[in-house]
Each structure stands twice: as structure tokens, then as C-alpha cells.
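Work Package 4 report. The design task specified in the project plan requires that, given a folded chain encoded as C-alpha cells, an amino acid be chosen for each position. We show below one input record used in the internal validation round.
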């Protein structure tokens, strides 16, 4: 009996372990763990990190030919170019490999900033050709960077350009038998149809609006404010990019200065020869690098000043103010400021503003704007924030100070929050994210530009965010060129007032949406098609009945959506949703709203979660019951059932 009991205990324990593992497997199906592999835009290329870079090239023979792409997974131009580089990687890396052999590599600079900074990469995508020993030794001056043909689109003929470029540099020179027919077939299959134009989008939006009016429907679910997490995440990543580019500029100037110092120890005759004429290259490069560092310094200074005034989150404004000199122009001084965005209402009060009034309103966002404005003037409770001032620039090192580069945490965030509304619809997509967050930050800061100057705030904002950030620190080259060209054509530099700059950046955002909708957006998220924003479901009264914009209501919408009308917002993982009653089809609306909240496949995830929990409970109860049974410790009711059952079994025997 003891032996049988021991075996039963072991069996029960084994059963419980199996049940637990099974339930864990079901849970893992329900909540998918996302790896970072989705960031690799060309999976056939060998992806390198700071730790594996030298090792991978050292494993090849020293004179092996290699091609290397530097990209950033958030960069729309890199994502649009990715299919082209994937063709190159498949051609060179997959058997049968053409002769002379070439190996294709890739580095994600968004993940490997230290490595890319050593290579002084400040524009994506960038493709280089060289030998393994040149790459392993990081001899950036010896490798060759591909220069794209001006009259050909990189997203259409990039693979062909790379293969032709490589063929002219390998030894012996080779005309590779390469065809990009596979890409042409894929592109025709995936998106050959004509893109929807902006006018068509506006017409569809107007028709939807009019049809809903005829049916007596109100709009379903409206987000009342932008996600605070997205604004903070965008700020953190923006600052990381600034630190990265400042380090490259500073390193280049310091290397040239050191080289100049060494050359100054040459003989007098050599110095005289240089003075007479010949070598002015080094001096020219040093002057250019010095000018670049000065530009970077001024851009960072104007951007810090602007963020300390216009950032929509008080903690972020305070953190950037700490990078500016104190009242006496030095660092080390402590300052206490009062956060004017805190009011005598609590966050919970601000979050639950007359739900019934919102539900009965034609447009809840504009109703919220009116609700905010009617409650102003009730006396403000101010929160004191202590600021420790540090200088952001080190003149001796020609770069950011140690504090700004290593210690400073924007918004006081040690770890950046995850993307929320800017999160891509698919876990295997690297779209949206940073670019979405940058747009949100541009909108929000433009709406607060009056804090820079009541009359010239628009001009100061443009200088900081367009001439400062976009021109110097937004390293998606194609995106930067498009934005600056658009800004120049629309004469954004002539805008002065804060209200005008808020409208200007909103219109430019819709211009970009129009261009991408017309030309096609291979780097976009299919669940978030490019359209004119806000659409009628987000703001019904932002358009007149003929579909044209109602500027007054658009401005109110933007102020509520991005700034919560300058009222306090809860620091939540999701922005607040307001449910609006519908006069008909309420069940369908409720179901569609829940489905939208869960996302694609959300019902399956919920079902699997419930199934996993039920299975765990069942396994635990079974284990307890069988264990008590093996120890003869079952309650009397179970003993009576056992005797009755056993008697029936014996009676049934022949």
C-alpha cells in the first residue's frame, strides 16, 4: 500500500506538471512574446551587432568582398528600400552564389548606435562596398559608398544599382547576371492598384458623414487625447538621436584637431611648403568640421529652449529646463518652479467630465473643449518642481557635456515607455513608432508655441524644430529632403504667430498623407491607410457639410487631442476613450468597438486566456482530490460515494 501510494504521488505530481506546462503553452499562444527580429528589414543579409561586427568579418578571408547596409528600422525610406536590399542579399548570399563571391551584411543603427557612430553614419540608408579586412578594421576611408543615380528611384532600381556598382569594383571586374524580375512580380502582386487620392478620401468621408446623418447615427468611439506614453517615448528617442549625431560631429572635429596638432610638429621646411601652396585640404576639412559642430550646438540649444517651454508634459519641460543655465548663467543652481498645468481638480475629475453630456453631444471632442473652457478660472493648485541646472555643452570637448550625453533622462524616464497609439498593427512590422511619435510631438509643441513668444512664437518654433531638429537630426535622408522641400515651398519660415504655425504643421501632415496616398506607401501600415485627418469619425464638426475644413473646430480638436486643452491628464497606459450613444444598430456598434479595441485576432486571444485559466484550475482541483484519495483523507461524503460505487461494481460482477 505504501509503495502504491508513493507511485500514485509521483504520478499525480507528473500530471500536475503536465497540466501546468500545457496551460503555460496556451498562455504563450494567447500573449505572444515579440522578439526584435522583426526589426531586421532584409532578413537574408547577415545582421551585425557591436559585439559580432569584427568577428563576422574576421571569419572571412581578408580579401573577401563585402557589401554592408546601415539603416534604421524606424526610417520609412529604409523600409521602402528594404525589398531592394533583400534582393541583393538573396543574390549574393544564397546558393548558387555568383563569382566573384560577395557577402551582404546589414546593421540597424537604431539598435547599434555605438557602432554606427564609429562609422559616422548620419543618414539612412547608406550602402558600402569593401573587403573583409577593411570592414573588420573599421577603415571607413578605404571602403566605397554607393552614390545613387539621380534620375532613378532607389526604391525601384536600388538592387540593380548596387549590383552594377559592386561589379565594377570586384577583381576581376564583372558584369553580374542579375535580374530584379522577382521584385517586379511581387510589387505587381502586392499593390498594383491605383492609390486613393486625397480628393477621393474627402469625398468618401463626406459621403459617410451624410449617410450617417440620414440614418440618425452619432459617431461611435472617439479618443479624447493623444497618448502620453507616445509623447514621452518620442521625446526619449529624439534625444537619443541628438546625442548620437552630436557625438559624430564632435569626434570628427577632435580627430582633425589632433591630426592638425601632430602635423604642427613637422619640420619648418614642410610647414613652409604647405604654406606656399600646396596642402590646404586638412585646413578646409577642419574648418568645415568646426562649422558643423557650431551648427549642431546652436540647433541643440534652440531645441532645448523650445522643449522647455512647449512640451505638452510638465515633467518633460522641467527636465529640459535643467539643461539650460540658471539665473546667474552657470550650472549647479537649484530652481523651484510652479507647474501651471496642475489645477485644483484632480486627474480623476479631469478624466470623467460629465459623461452624460459627452454621450449626448454631436461631437464629444468639441463638447470636451467647451467643458474645459467653462470650468476655467476656479483657482489653480500649483505643483513645485525642483530643477538642478547643468550646462548641456562642453566647450573644451567640443561636444555635449558628460551630464547631457550620459546622465540626462528626458521627462525623468529611466526607461522609455512602450509605444501605445503609435504601435504598429502587426508585431512583425517596424512601421509607425518613431515617425508617428515625432509627428505627435510636432503637433503638440506647435500648439504651445505661444509660450515661446505671444507674437513671434511660430517663427521661434520653426527655427527650433524645422531648422534645428529636422534639418540636423532626422536622419531618414529621403524624409528629411521631402519635408524641407515642402517647408520651403509653403514658406513656413515666414510664419510668425503661434496659431498659424499650429495650422501649418497640421496642413503639412495632411500634405504628406496626400503624397503617400497618391504615390503609394510601401513602408506604411496597412491598418492605418494615409488619409486626411481628422476624419469624420474622430471629429464630425471639423468639416462643413460640403466636406471642406472648419478651421475653428479643427483648432479646438487639435487642442483637446494633443494638449487636453492644457488641462491635467492621467498618466495611463492608454488614452481615454469616450463612448457615444448610437440611435440604432447599438449592438453592432458595441461589438465593433470591442473588436477594434482588441485588434485583429483579439477574440482568439481572449478565448485562449480563459481556456488556459480554466485548465489550471481544473488541474489544481484534480491534484488535490487525487492526493487526498491516496492518503485516505477524503471527506465522509466522498467515502460514502466510494463505497456505494464499489458495491455497484462488485454486484455487477458475474
Amino acid at each position: 500500500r505504501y509503495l502504491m501510494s508513493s507511485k500514485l504521488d509521483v504520478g499525480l505530481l507528473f500530471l500536475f506538471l503536465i497540466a501546468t506546462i500545457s496551460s503555460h503553452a496556451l498562455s504563450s499562444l494567447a500573449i505572444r512574446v515579440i522578439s526584435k527580429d522583426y526589426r531586421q528589414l532584409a532578413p537574408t543579409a547577415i545582421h551585425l551587432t557591436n559585439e559580432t561586427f569584427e568577428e563576422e568579418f574576421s571569419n572571412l578571408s581578408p580579401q573577401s568582398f563585402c557589401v554592408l547596409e546601415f539603416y534604421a528600422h524606424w526610417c520609412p525610406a529604409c523600409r521602402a528600400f528594404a525589398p531592394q536590399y533583400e534582393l541583393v542579399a538573396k543574390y549574393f548570399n544564397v546558393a548558387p552564389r555568383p563569382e566573384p563571391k560577395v557577402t551582404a551584411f546589414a546593421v540597424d543603427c537604431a539598435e547599434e548606435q555605438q557602432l554606427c557612430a564609429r562609422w559616422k553614419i548620419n543618414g539612412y540608408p547608406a550602402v558600402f562596398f569593401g573587403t573583409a579586412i577593411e570592414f573588420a578594421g573599421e577603415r571607413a576611408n578605404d571602403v566605397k559608398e554607393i552614390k545613387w543615380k539621380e534620375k532613378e528611384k532607389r526604391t525601384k532600381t536600388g538592387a540593380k544599382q548596387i549590383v552594377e556598382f559592386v561589379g565594377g569594383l570586384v577583381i576581376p571586374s564583372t558584369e553580374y547576371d542579375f535580374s530584379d524580375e522577382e521584385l517586379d512580380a511581387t510589387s505587381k502582386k502586392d499593390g498594383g492598384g491605383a492609390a486613393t487620392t486625397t480628393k477621393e478620401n474627402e469625398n468618401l468621408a463626406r459621403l459617410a458623414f451624410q449617410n450617417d446623418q440620414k440614418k440618425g447615427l452619432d459617431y461611435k468611439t472617439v479618443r479624447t487625447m493623444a497618448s502620453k506614453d507616445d509623447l514621452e517615448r518620442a521625446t526619449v528617442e529624439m534625444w537619443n538621436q541628438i546625442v548620437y549625431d552630436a557625438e559624430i560631429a564632435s569626434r570628427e572635429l577632435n580627430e582633425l584637431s589632433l591630426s592638425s596638432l601632430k602635423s604642427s610638429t613637422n619640420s619648418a621646411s614642410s610647414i613652409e611648403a604647405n604654406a606656399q601652396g600646396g596642402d590646404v585640404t586638412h585646413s578646409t576639412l577642419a574648418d568645415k568640421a568646426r562649422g558643423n559642430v557650431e551648427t549642431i550646438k546652436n540647433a541643440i540649444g534652440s531645441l532645448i529652449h523650445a522643449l522647455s517651454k512647449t512640451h505638452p508634459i510638465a515633467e518633460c519641460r522641467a527636465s529640459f529646463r535643467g539643461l539650460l543655465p540658471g539665473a546667474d548663467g552657470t550650472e549647479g543652481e537649484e530652481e523651484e518652479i510652479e507647474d501651471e498645468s496642475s489645477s485644483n481638480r484632480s486627474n480623476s475629475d479631469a478624466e470623467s467630465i460629465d459623461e452624460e453630456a459627452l454621450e449626448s453631444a454631436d461631437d464629444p471632442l468639441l463638447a470636451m473643449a467647451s467643458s474645459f473652457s467653462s470650468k476655467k478660472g476656479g483657482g489653480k493648485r500649483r505643483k513645485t518642481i525642483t530643477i538642478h541646472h547643468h550646462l548641456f555643452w562642453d566647450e573644451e570637448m567640443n561636444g555635449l557635456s558628460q551630464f547631457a550625453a550620459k546622465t540626462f533622462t528626458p521627462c525623468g524616464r529611466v526607461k522609455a515607455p512602450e509605444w501605445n497609439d503609435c504601435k504598429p498593427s502587426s508585431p512583425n512590422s517596424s512601421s509607425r513608432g518613431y515617425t508617428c511619435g515625432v509627428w505627435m510631438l510636432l503637433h503638440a509643441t506647435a500648439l504651445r508655441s505661444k509660450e515661446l513668444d505671444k507674437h513671434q512664437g511660430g517663427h521661434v518654433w520653426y527655427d527650433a524644430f524645422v531648422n534645428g531638429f529636422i534639418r540636423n537630426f532626422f536622419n531618414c535622408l529621403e524624409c528629411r529632403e521631402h519635408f524641407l522641400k515642402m517647408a520651403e515651398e509653403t514658406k513656413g519660415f515666414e510664419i510668425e504667430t503661434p496659431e498659424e504655425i499650429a495650422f501649418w504643421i497640421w496642413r503639412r501632415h495632411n500634405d504628406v498623407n496626400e503624397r503617400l496616398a497618391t504615390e503609394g506607401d510601401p513602408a506604411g501600415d496597412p491598418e492605418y491607410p494615409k488619409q486626411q485627418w481628422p476624419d469624420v469619425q474622430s471629429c464630425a464638426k471639423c468639416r462643413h457639410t460640403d466636406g471642406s475644413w472648419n478651421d475653428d473646430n479643427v483648432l479646438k480638436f487639435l487642442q483637446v487631442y494633443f494638449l487636453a486643452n492644457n488641462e491635467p491628464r492621467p498618466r495611463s497606459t492608454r488614452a481615454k476613450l469616450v463612448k457615444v450613444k448610437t440611435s440604432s444598430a447599438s449592438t453592432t456598434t458595441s461589438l465593433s468597438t470591442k473588436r477594434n479595441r482588441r485588434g485583429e485576432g483579439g477574440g482568439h486571444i481572449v478565448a485562449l486566456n480563459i481556456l488556459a485559466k480554466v485548465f489550471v484550475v481544473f488541474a489544481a482541483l484534480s491534484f488535490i482530490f487525487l492526493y487526498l484519495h491516496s492518503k485516505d483523507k477524503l471527506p465522509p461524503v466522498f467515502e460514502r460515494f466510494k463505497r456505494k460505487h464499489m458495491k455497484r461494481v462488485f454486484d455487477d460482477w458475474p
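The first strand starts at residue 46 and ends at 47. Validation will be extended to a larger panel in the next phase.
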